[in-house]
């Protein structure tokens, strides 16, 4: 049966209008975005990272670990890649050896590739060589190295997938707040220890980047918090992404089809409260982690339901090492006393220094740490800091760059150890224990000015306006 000519004309006009609206929507979108993700839960028992007191591999899996990537393309064709993972951290030997492979596969230059790890203490150790401050049997070390190298292959593959999935998108962002991060530098009569400090400073902000299709469908979300993923303690020898993984799963359940990605903030001296070591109800770590994750996930969902601020382009990237000054090395006698009396990382650092001195080598005076600044038009500045950065740097960087339109992340590109402030170094405590990956030494108080100065330099280079 043929349709009346008038009906056919209206149908054709309607189709034309829909097509025109779709074209206009795509043309109006200032970005292209592509997502990819992969489960990276170990398939065999492996030693977990984060606590040197663990002596046997983990066998139980509470929840899966994931590697995720977001590819972005601005209107000028500039492409960038953000990797996040439920892992303890990415070291420089990992990122600097995989980035050339990613560039070769995608054409995206190094300064536009950013790695961030959630710093879960319930995931496998990430190792590129046998040298480590962990006490790991040789056969386990070999398995961890194989896992890590396979992880590099996954990074290249996921980057290619995400770029291949680029589609028109709009970006917007906002900020929420979460209450479970707690300053952990507890002052006692004998010094500063790891504990609970309710009066201590902590960053409880929750930055949220929303990625939508031109029609308003949520494609994905990147969100952050500044808190160690240490709900699981040293006695909890189970695989889990901790609260960060639980929060991502919460958001993905709330927004079916969207990919949720977690970025760790300046969490060097912040722990979740409670955790499995200090929970008054003595609940298992998994239950507490789910509770914190749900709290964070609900806040992200609340922020997504508000009117967010548009984020325009282009994305300008600046990337360079900061030459972080180290303290003058202790005398050989001091190092030998530390080696004899201390345990774990302090002993390992002292032993490494002694070995170099005995070999006739000169101990380093600086550590080269990569710093990244991504500037999204005039709407948002993302600062990616390396190492386990303490909360003091939030205020220091806000004072330098201004507090508005600013996202601060740590554990980016190179997790070499704690990055203390001058105050923390003066007070002492766990966060002053120096480098534990990639180098040897203890940071000097001048590290504060050098790092903030490098952030200022790169922000200006990327076009940040205070």
Q: What percent strand?
A: 25-35%
The overall strand count is 21
- Mean pLDDT rating: 93
The number of helical runs is: 10
Protein architecture, described:
The chain is α/β, with parallel strands linked by helices. Helix content is 33%, strand content 26%. The chain folds into two domains: 28-316, no CATH class; 317-462, no CATH class. The chain has ten helices and 21 strands. Strands 1, 3, 4, 5, 6, 10, 11, 13 and 15 form a nine-stranded mixed β-sheet that branches. It has a four-stranded mixed β-sheet with strand order 16-17-18-20, covered by helices on one side. A two-stranded parallel ribbon has the order 2-12. Helix 2 links the parallel strand 4 and strand 5. The protein is globular.
Q: What is the gist of this entry?
A:
By secondary structure, the protein is an alpha/beta fold. Helices cover 33% and strands 26% of the residues.
